[in-house]
Amino acid sequence: MTSIKQLTLVDDDEVFVFLTSKMLEQSKLVDLIKIFENGYDALVFIKENLGNIEALPDIILLDLSMPIMDGWQFLEGFVKINPSIGKKIIIYICSSSISPDDVIRAKAINEVSDFIIKPMTKDKLVEMIKNL
Question: Could you give the angle at the alpha carbon of 53 between the alpha carbons of 50 and 57, nearest 5°?
Fold first, then answer.
């Protein structure tokens, strides 16, 4: 079974973060879960670890609506540094937005693998990891 070394949740929704973390722990498919409540802290972490590939996540679950730096702003910064990261980081947008404009905008960004509308189910989470 596929196992992910590190998954990062970038989301300020405490309930989503708690439930998703519990589902990931129960699935035993992820070794380490890092949590950031806004895009700024997540982007700073990635920038600080550009020379340390092992510290960087394999997958990011990214919310769009957050304080300080939202998901769109995070993606703008991520796209700029992506060529110097040194590993492929898979980004899934996990949002409660059902706006077709958000889905279209997200799918136009090469670094975004998929757009998942909350709530996240355990089956969807496990399927997502197994399909890597």
Answer: 95
Q: Dump pLDDT digits (tens) for 2-47.
A: 678 999 999 999 999 999 999 999 989 899 999 999 999 999 999 9
Q: Which CATH number fits domain 15-119: 3.30.110.70, 3.10.20.30, 3.40.50.2300, 3.40.630.10?
A: 3.40.50.2300
Distances (CA, A) of 86 to 5, 43, 58, 91: 16, 15, 12, 15
Measured CA to CA, the distance from residue 108 to residue 78 in angstroms comes to 14
Give the number of C-alpha atoms closer than 13 A to the C-alpha of residue 107, restricted to the C-beta side.
9
Q: 0.90 cut: is pTM over it?
A: yes
**Inter-CA distances, 27 with 51, 58, 69, 81, Å:** 30, 16, 30, 31
What does DSSP say about strands 59-62 and 30-36: parallel, antiparallel, or unpaired?
A: unpaired
